[in-house]
């Protein structure tokens, strides 16, 4: 399962890490050996390693999932997927606007020929479901989502779902922004996840505080934030 969106900042890393957290919590290692591998893995192929920063702050021992940071090295994701103990891998990818500055906009494959493009192609080859995050109101995320779907996912026949992320449910009490995004998807024939991920400061602070949703201090907001990811994880399992 791969998070992909050409535009940075739509929530790929946030969603990958937190889906791994809630899914890992429900699927702990079968062995009680503390060194036993976890059936759930959050993997990052970003050469700049945005997941790596997160992994450094969130000690792996305290989490019910493993991290794999490939930094763009080839062969590691395929090897992981061959491991019979691995149940689910959530792959975080880089925004790819600048993957290959030489790539022309009308190239049949906009991922370019650089090493990051190669790493992306390797993952896409193995992707059983792609999640494409978009953010209501932030129109800068919309046409890159469309580009990602039309130019990268559909030509490869990769099943995908749009995920509406960072939805400000407090400000959007009438749900007009949410409905606008749903209509946006429907107009284009893009399947989307019914469960939107709401905007909470807890999530925005998470990369710095080094917490995943399963570790947030108990509060109403923490519960609601976690609920979104549990529901999203269930929906993902329903598709796979
Ligand atoms: N639901 C949310 N509520 C609050 N903040 C969020 C939410 N989702 C993402 N963010 C914040 O928005 C910022 C961008 O999110 P994130 O890093 O997950 O995006 P990304 O798609 O991985 O970006 P990049 O392509 O640069 O790696 C981060 O500061 C993150 O904490
Ligand atoms: Mg990221």
Structure description:
This is CobQ/CobB/MinD/ParA nucleotide binding domain-containing protein. InterPro entries: CobQ/CobB/MinD/ParA_Nub-bd_dom (IPR002586), P-loop_NTPase (IPR027417). It comes from Streptomyces carminius. The chain has about 240 residues and is α/β, with parallel strands linked by helices. The chain has one domain: 3-Layer(aba) Sandwich (Rossmann fold). Helices cover about 40% and strands about 15% of the residues. The protein contains 8 helices and 7 strands. It has helices at about 10-25, 50-55, 75-80, 115-125, 140-155, 175-190, 200-210, 220-240; strands spanning about 1-5, 40-45, 65-70, 90, 130-135, 160-165, 195-200. It has a 7-stranded parallel beta sheet with strand order 3-2-4-1-5-6-7, with helices on both faces. Strand 5 (about 130-135), helix 5 (about 140-155) and strand 6 form a beta-alpha-beta unit. Helix 1 (about 10-25) packs across helix 8 (about 220-240). It is globular and about 50 Å long. It starts with a strand and ends with a helix. The relative contact order is 0.17. The mean pLDDT is about 90. Bound molecules: adenosine-5'-triphosphate and magnesium ion (MG). Magnesium ion (MG) binds near residues 12, 13, 50 and 92.
